[in-house]
UniProtKB/TrEMBL annotation:
Keywords: Transport
rRNA-binding listed as a keyword: no
Family under the similarity heading: Belongs to the membrane fusion protein (MFP) (TC 8.A.1) family.
Native source organism of the sequence: Massilia jejuensis
Transmembrane regions listed in the UniProt entry: none
Domain CzcB-like C-terminal circularly permuted SH3-like, residue spans: 331-390
Protein name: Efflux RND transporter periplasmic adaptor subunit
Length: 496
């Protein structure tokens, strides 16, 4: 009986161990997706490159776990789904999102500038009406500035008292038949600025001409009217100014960075807001010296044909300046370029409906297109619309940070100034491969009070001699992904 009991006991123990092992295996298999966040796909043998929080895609982790930023598990990124290779957009998704593609093309275009200008009077076509003798305004035929006048139209009638005596003297000599003295009297009237037309009328009619009418020398607009009826005038005094309207000036604002591209003689096409279908043509007359300190623009003086008189001063117009020579340029639709402020990105379509972001260097805009100076080749397909829907669909924010080190030389921005270094003293609460958790004292340079927070390590192998519980002196800088440690040494102080 005793050998049988021992055998039965051994079988029961072995069965218990087997059941316990099976339970442990099932428990670990069920807990793996919850603890690691890898999900069923991780169990299929796919290689995980790293884990990240989709809400903070720039931060990577080398093991699964709970996100330190959100109340969720970290999401794995697999080797066969590396974001650097781009994303795939199916034809159905392309249609649903309204995505359009466009080809990168090369075209011969002239250097063009898109500017804004304001119409003005052509000052070179201005004529001045002046009084040549002292007198009074007997009648003013033009009553207000900006009134249109015809060539030869009466502007003002002058009464000149000092012309009366010489005319009476001339008439008396003429009646007496003294031709020599009469000729001398005529010279005296000319010296008093009496017009030949009045002298001829005096000799013909035999009556004193005390009033003289001033007329418009050209057809145009009365730009200035400096007198009123009854006003006294002196020699050389401006009665009115008449500006011709056959041509008009347009003062276009040229950004300081484009001053070198604007040249006298460039052809101009201008359109106004009143009738965008109507175009005016002309050329750049000259570039005015000086740059406006507030707008940082210079002004180009443009001469436009205005024989129909439709241009009036103050009109705001869009101006396109074109050079005489053309050059071959690589162009994409302007809507295909995503400008972030530090770089410009274009989504390139590759085989298998894969879309990959490419950092490009851009030049000037040519109509609805943008010049590409680096990053693309002729014939490539780019996404012309729906980029931001793709960004939302494929989480391109986790792709674009990778491109920071692969931008072409022409697209890189100038070096930024070095980040400010801050220093503090604190106690090490936790050490991980990514960060140190420090309970630090005040940081005067940032006006921080004492607190406990994570500081990013520059690399997994940094500060290997630092342990939890130590009091350390540390230095850090503010980066794009948070605050990064630069120096950590054990402090001799007893407390932070």
């Amino acid at each position: 009986m005793k050998p049988i009991s021992l055998k039965r006991t051994g079988l029961l123990v072995a069965a218990g161990i087997a059941l316990a092992g099976a339970g442990y295996w099932l428990g670990t298999q069920r807990a793996a997706p919850e603890a690691g966040g890898a999900g069923p796909a991780a169990a299929a043998g796919r290689r995980v490159l790293y884990w990240h929080d989709p809400m903070v895609p720039g931060q990577r982790f080398d093991k699964p776990g709970k996100s330190p930023f959100m109340d969720m598990q970290l999401v794995p990124v697999y080797a066969d789904e590396d974001a650097a290779a781009g994303v795939t957009v199916s034809p159905t998704l392309q249609q649903n999102l309204g995505i359009r593609y466009a080809a990168v093309r090369r075209a011969d275009v002239a250097d063009t500038l898109e500017l804004v200008g304001t119409a003005e009077f052509d000052a070179s076509a201005e004529e001045v009406i002046q009084s040549r003798a002292p007198g009074f305004i007997d009648k003013l035929h033009v009553r207000s500035p900006l009134q249109r006048v015809r060539r030869g139209q009466a502007v003002a009638t002058l009464f000149v008292p000092e012309w009366i005596a010489p005319q009476e003297e001339y008439l008396a000599l003429a009646r007496a038949g003294d031709d020599v003295l009469a000729a001398a009297s005529r010279q005296r009237m000319r010296a008093l600025a009496m017009p030949e037309s009045l002298i001829a009328e005096l000799a013909r009619s035999g009556r004193v001409q005390s009033r003289h009418t001033l007329t418009a020398p050209i057809a145009g607009i009365v730009g200035e009217l400096g007198v009123r009826e009854g006003a006294q005038v002196t020699p050389g005094m401006t009665i009115a100014k008449v500006v011709g309207m056959d041509t008009a000036w347009l003062l276009a604002e040229v950004p300081e960075a484009l001053i070198g591209a604007a040249r006298p003689g460039m052809q101009v096409v201008a359109t106004g807001s009143a009738d965008p279908r109507r175009t005016y043509r002309g050329k750049v007359r000259e570039l005015l010296p000086g740059v406006n300190a507030s707008t940082r623009t210079a002004r180009a003086r443009i001469e436009l044909d205005n024989r129909d008189g439709s241009l009036t001063p103050g009109m705001l117009m869009r101006v396109r300046l074109s050079g005489a020579k053309t050059a071959s340029k690589l162009l994409v639709p302007s809507e295909a370029v995503i400008a972030s402020g530090t770089r410009s990105v274009v989504l390139v379509v590759e085989g298998g409906n894969r879309i990959r972001p490419v950092v490009v260097a851009t030049g000037r805009e040519v109509g609805d297109d943008t010049e590409i100076t680096a990053g693309l080749a002729e014939g490539q397909q780019v996404v012309a619309s729906g980029q931001f829907l793709i960004d939302s669909e494929a989480n391109l924010k986790s792709i674009l940070p990778k491109l920071a080190g692969s931008a072409p030389a022409a697209a890189r921005t100038p070096a930024q100034p070095a980040a400010t270094t801050h220093a503090g003293v604190g106690k090490v609460e936790q050490v991980t491969d990514e960060a140190l958790t420090l309970s630090h004292g005040p940081i005067p340079t940032l006006q921080w009070p004492p607190m406990t927070m994570d500081f990013k390590k520059p690399g997994p192998g940094a500060f290997q001699d630092i342990r939890a519980g130590q009091v350390v002196e540390f230095e850090f800088v503010e980066g794009e992904d948070g605050y990064e440690l630069k120096k950590v040494v054990v402090s001799r102080k007893d407390k932070p």
